[in-house]
Amino acid sequence: MNVAGKSISVARSIYRWLVLAKGRALSKCSPPHAMPPATLNAALQRIEADLRQNILPFWISRVVDRAGHTFYGSLTNDLVLDRTVERGALLTSRILWTYAAAYRQYLDPAYLAMADYACADLFARFHDAKYGGFYWSIAADGTVLRDRKQIYGQAFAIYALSEYHSATGRPEPLDQAIAVFRLIEAHAREPQYGGYLEAFGRAWEPITEVRLSAGDQNDPKSQNTLLHVMEAYTNLLRLWPDPGLRRALTELVEVMLRHVVDPATGHLRLFFANDWTVHSDKISYGHDIEAAWLLTAAAEVLGGAELTARVQALALKIADVTLAEGTDSDGGIYNQGGPKGLTDGAKEWWPQAEAVIGFLNAYQLSRDERYLAASLRTWDFIDTHLIDRKNGEWFRGVTRDGRVLAKELKVSFWKCPYHNGRMGLETVRRLRAILSHHWPQNS
Q1: Any residues with CB less than 8 A from the CB of 286 and at least 6 apart, and which?
Q2: 137 pairs with which residues across the strands?
Q3: pLDDT tens string for the chain (443 positions)?
Q4: How far apart are CA 152 and CA 329, in angstroms?
Q5: 161 closest CA partner among 198, 115, 125
């Protein structure tokens, strides 16, 4: 390394140390807050009420097909069912994660019963007993429709099964999660350039059509799959401290930092060739802010001062950029942008949910109340525009000027309780921790 290179390396090391030192100092002190505890308490109560009186009861009462011992795959805003649609393992996995996590937090037996029901559905209808892993989708009559092994879907199975084990202590879900992890490592890890490939055939053979959905590109690697493999591996490592899993997660976090997140812009690059040549200039604001807090969680599980400092500094940069470029004046998060600015001003449910957590995470890292205010402002947007007080749950989204996307489904292949359910669980837990730390008498 030449002198200039050494100087840059030293400067980076000093910067990372300063970021970490600042974070440690902030975590040990309780600076005065402009936002009164009553405001945080009120937000906490509203969010928890939406979670426990709206989101979680809705899926139990409206989406469980008791006659078929499964779940409905399509429901309109007016609660009209379509019993003929394709249904994915993804929906069942996300229901399983949501209710396992809710049971772990609240110990409500109704949540455990729902998680049990989802786990039974996942294995009865989607598990591939011959080749391992889970099919992507089934037809309305229960026959396998798409038997491909989409790595995004395998990741959500790991995420859900590890959470189910955490909630129940039952060994079988953890064993199954580990089995899927080993399949991903054996077949999907890209050996030359790192990261994970998108999809395979039923027997884990290569296929040419690998796109996740009709709106995605047919590229061998995507931030979306990598992000959720990281999320799944993080959850699994909390329960199973295997050296191989730790090594895989460490390498994946480095892939995210080196190839997926653009440090200059604070945005995620979305699609890639095998060698990480970038194939898209689109910006997904929801994925940006979701990645900020999921990277923070991965770094916390892995430990290490240098990695923690790098990730925390990046999480704050992403939060700043999301606030500046991806947030409307009403607190809502736009869907997409590009190099020339906004390209899709609609505001779907999931970017809002991820922004509430992502901004709150940035506040916990920095104690900068701009982020706390942004988190609560996005929640206010949700409360005003997305919660369906007539028929329950949340609308899928609204236009930029607040009109409901009426043709979008409330329950579908992709519309699920995972994003908004997780927002409720995470935000309640984090707000309680903030109140307990700064105002113990209010906790």
Answers
A1: 333, 335, 348, 350, 351, 354, 355
A2: 88, 146
A3: 443 343 334 334 433 433 443 443 344 344 456 789 999 999 999 999 999 999 999 999 999 999 999 999 999 999 999 999 999 999 999 999 999 999 999 999 999 999 999 999 999 999 999 999 999 999 999 999 999 999 999 999 999 999 999 999 999 999 999 999 999 999 999 999 999 999 999 999 999 999 999 999 999 999 999 999 999 999 999 999 999 999 999 999 999 999 999 999 999 999 999 999 999 999 999 999 999 999 999 999 999 999 999 999 999 999 999 999 999 999 999 999 999 999 999 999 999 999 999 999 999 999 999 999 999 999 999 999 999 999 999 999 999 999 999 999 999 999 999 999 999 999 999 999 999 987 665 44
A4: 33
A5: 115
CB distance 261 to 226 below 8 Å: no
Q: Which residue(s) pair with 278 in the sheet?
A: 272
d(CA 415, CA 388): 14
Place of tokens 């991820």: 354
State the DSSP string of 292-315.
Answer: HHHHHHHHHHH--HHHHHHHHHHH
- Over its C-alpha atoms, the chain yields an Rg (Å, rounded) of 21
Is residue 99 exposed (0-12), middle (13-18) or buried (19+ Cβ within 10 Å)?
buried
The CB density around residue 85, as the number of other CB atoms within 10 Å, is: 18
Q: Helix (H, G, I), strand (E, B), or coil: what is residue 130?
A: coil
What single letter denotes the amino acid at residue 200? F
Environment class of 206 (CB within 10 Å of its CB; exposed 0-12, middle 13-18, buried 19+):
exposed
Helices (H), 51-88: 56-62
Q: Are 362 and 319 in contact (CB under 8 A)?
A: yes
d(CA 82, CA 299): 42
Strand residue runs (E) in 12-125 = 64-65, 70-71, 87-88
Instruction: Provide the token pair at 382.
Output: 């949700």
Q: 40-71: buried (b, 16+ CB within 10 Å) or exposed (e) per residue? A: bbebbebbbebbbebbbebbbebbbeeeeebb
Chain center to CA of 281: 22
Cβ pair 410, 77 in contact under 8 A: yes
SS3 state of residue 223: helix
pTM equals 0.92
Count the Cβ atoms, other than its own, within 10 Å of residue 307. Answer: 20
Report the C-alpha dihedral over residues 79, 83, 85, 90, rounded to 10 degrees. 70
